[in-house]
Amino acid sequence: MREIRVILFGLGRVGRALVEEARRAPFSLKFVGVFDSTGGAVAPNGLSDRELQELVDAKGADKSIASLPGGLPYEEAVAELPGLFASGPGVLLDLTAAGDTLVPLIRAALDAGWGAVLANKLPLVGPLDLFREFTSTGRLRYEATVGAGTPVIALLEYLLNSGDVVKSIQGMVSGTLGYLLAACEGGMPLSQAVREAWEKGYTEPHPAQDLLGLDIARKALILARTLGLPVELHEIKADPLCSADLADLPPQEFLAALARDDGELARRIAGAKRRGRTLRYLLRVGEDGCWVGLREVEMASLLARARGNITVLEISTERFGSTPLVVYGPGSGLRETACGVLADIGQLRARLGQR
Fold it and tell me: Which 8-state DSSP code applies to residue 312?
């Protein structure tokens, strides 16, 4: 079985989980480059298992790749990439939280005939033309950007490739907000629940991204664009769970100041309970519009029964009529996200001429 050459950007918790889960995959990965924000380790013939594990252990101990033996400063390491791209097919992995800074490298990889797999949403939520440019190659995959490893994007592609028309998607795609609402329904103040989720790695690096609805709005945009809808991020209305003026604070200060919003969410939860309902943070995507926000749902509904770190989506299509397809699974998690990335790499094997 041929190895799949990969360049990994992001050796944080998701990246380290990927290295671990790759040992169980039905194909082999050859890591020819591993990068963090400081630098990279480049090995055209592939890092040995020992070298790769040393990088993983060092990052787990908060060391930078640039400071390690064999590590290069970031710009020097990036300068080695054209040679890697030219030496044969492979897959570039963006598992960072580095915004859209890797867009030029993703473009270069795709132009060289490589594949690209993203867990980072930011390169997909910029201008629509960029999304179309990348996805038109057929070698960009992004399952882990929505629902971690729960196969949401794969199901939509299956439906679209069969000639079906997806009329709407509605449900929960934020394991983070599901976790927070479940904790708050149990009586925990919002600020405490957010701090615990942040410390466990359930939130974005800055938890305001979750509470302002920005992260779920990005997921809604990716779903909409996957369906072919010409939507830009600013067109998706997002209802916040916290005061917008807190978002500019550093994470620790944000968490301390968030206590002032505890009462408002507690009142909304109590009001929904009096009406025999509960609160869920939902998205809706369809030709009639896209939105994300906190909504009351009936206690008997599947959305109400899904508590905590769960993705639930109801997908209505022309072919399936009045019976929507339901996707139900983990909404976040390091291992789950890593498995979504591995599934995408597996899907790219045939396109790269590797089986």
Answer: E
